[in-house]
Write a structure and sequence with these properties.
- The chain is of the alpha+beta class.
- The protein is built from nine helices and 17 strands.
- A six-stranded mixed β-sheet has the order 8-7-9-6-1-17. A five-stranded mixed β-sheet has the order 13-14-12-16-15.
- Strand 13 and strand 14 form a beta hairpin.
- Helix 1 runs parallel beside helix 2 and helix 5 runs antiparallel to helix 6.
- The model has no long low-confidence stretch (mean pLDDT about 95).
- The structure holds ligand DP6.
- GO terms for molecular function: ATP binding; diphosphomevalonate decarboxylase activity.
- This is Diphosphomevalonate decarboxylase.
- One of its GO terms (biological process) is isopentenyl diphosphate biosynthetic process, mevalonate pathway.
- Its EC number is 4.1.1.33.
Length: about 400
């Protein structure tokens, strides 16, 4: 059977300067620049196979094992845009007449509220670009699937430039430094138990643009300075500056969410207990050793350097214990336990209280990693040669 297939994987990214607010809803052009770390694909990634064949009656997509409709404006925008670019290459003439089947899955729970759409759209666009041999920047296409997706194409630290062109042609993501630049950088994701239905990023930021005065102030007076300063801190491997800006920007983003009318509340009591813990820890240590950041949900993402990982984990396990006062379950890079009794004592003296057991679901221990990439083995394809999920 005639067909062409490509399989790729793409990472999750966690912003340290947040994207929140669009100046163009349809093209997904942001109000401000944003900057994120790309997480290692060893622990978390999206995997996508795209297949084209003259036998396919229509475009089809399966997401995490379930068939979904292809009649989705963002999905179609990405496909149309890649195909428009592919038309410039005569070799694609036949391929472009065929329908596509897409199969995508995450190796981490979508329900955990971790940036799954960013990894998913980055992977979809990257795989299509490989299928049609489209060269050059495709971040401006991934952006049209989900804004933050454009930052998952590259590894290390990545900046999404808002741009000024009305057509979005200069709204693209570029790498600031590769993951090898700051190899000690580590990430702990504290997945918080939560059942509350939350306002999606898309509608939360739309409402913020319409109603928040603080957002207007942030875009003009805070983000430009912060972006320049954090980029410099990253290049100089200046962790205290990096950490302070990261925490301030997360706090301001959540303040904007609260300044939205009606307000959007993403952090919960457990999130705030984590914030208290990190500030007490940083105070005891005399300078920031750990930075927290929260996206549109209660989970904490901690950026820290490798020497601080074991003690931080011991503190989390003490102040936010697992069920029945046991340690929290941990996935990913193993951490050798240490005795943190002295620091625990110092934090208790500051009035920090131990929380009830079982407030966290689990912890993911990871690092920074590379951007989206193609897998060369046919065995990796998620679709069988007939075009159906394996
Ligand atoms: C809080 O990229 O999910 O994670 O462009 O509407 O799809 P859409 O929004 P999305 O928003 C992400 C918001 C954030 C901050 C960030 O990643 O910069």
């Amino acid at each position: 059977m005639k067909m062409a297939a490509v399989t790729c994987i793409a990472p999750v990214n966690i912003a340290v300067i947040k994207y929140w607010g669009k100046k163009d809803e349809k093209l997904i052009i942001p109000l401000n620049d944003s900057l994120s770390g790309t997480l290692s694909m060893d622990q978390m990634h999206a995997k996508t196979t795209v297949m084209a064949s003259p036998n396919f009656k229509k475009n089809c997509i399966w997401l995490n094992g379930k068939e979904e409709s292809f009649e989705n404006a963002r999905l179609l925008a990405c496909l149309k845009e890649i195909q428009r670019r592919a038309e410039q290459n005569e070799a694609n003439k036949e391929l472009l007449q065929w329908n596509v089947h897409v199969c995508s899955e995450n190796n981490f729970p979508t329900a955990a509220g971790l940036a799954s759409s960013a990894a998913g759209y980055a992977c979809f666009v990257y795989a299509l670009a490989k299928l049609y041999n489209v060269r050059g920047d495709v971040s401006q296409i991934a952006r049209q699937g989900s804004g933050s997706a454009c930052r998952s194409l590259e590894g290390g630290f990545v900046r999404w430039h808002a741009g000024s062109a009305p057509d979005g042609s200069d709204s693209l993501a570029t790498q600031v430094v590769p993951e090898t630049h700051w190899p000690e950088m580590r990430v702990l994701i504290l997945v918080v138990n939560d059942s509350k239905k939350k306002v999606s990023s898309t509608s939360g930021m739309q409402r913020a643009v319409e109603t928040s005065d603080l957002l207007k102030h942030r875009v003009v007076h805070c983000v430009p300075e912060r972006i320049a300063a954090i980029e410099k801190a990253i290049r100089n491997k200046d962790f205290p500056t990096f950490a302070e800006i990261t925490m301030k920007d997360s706090n301001q983003f959540h303040a904007v969410a609260l300044d939205t009318y009606p307000p959007a509340v993403y952090m919960n009591d457990v999130s705030h207990a984590i914030v208290d813990l990190i500030h007490c820890l940083n105070e005891v240590k005399g300078s920031p050793k750990v930075a927290y950041t929260f996206d549109a949900g209660p989970n904490a993402c901690l950026y820290l350097l490798e020497p601080a990982v074991a003690e931080t984990l011991a503190l989390v396990n003490h102040f936010l214990p697992g069920p029945n006062s046991q340690e929290n379950a941990i996935q990913g890079i193993p951490v050798v336990p240490v005795n943190a009794q002295d620091t625990i004592g110092a934090l208790q003296k500051m009035g920090l209280q131990q929380q009830a057991g079982g407030l966290l679901k689990y912890i993911i221990s990871t690092s920074l990693g590379e951007g989206a990439k193609q897998l060369s083995e046919c065995a990796e394809h998620l679709l069988s040669p007939t075009g159906l999920p394996k």
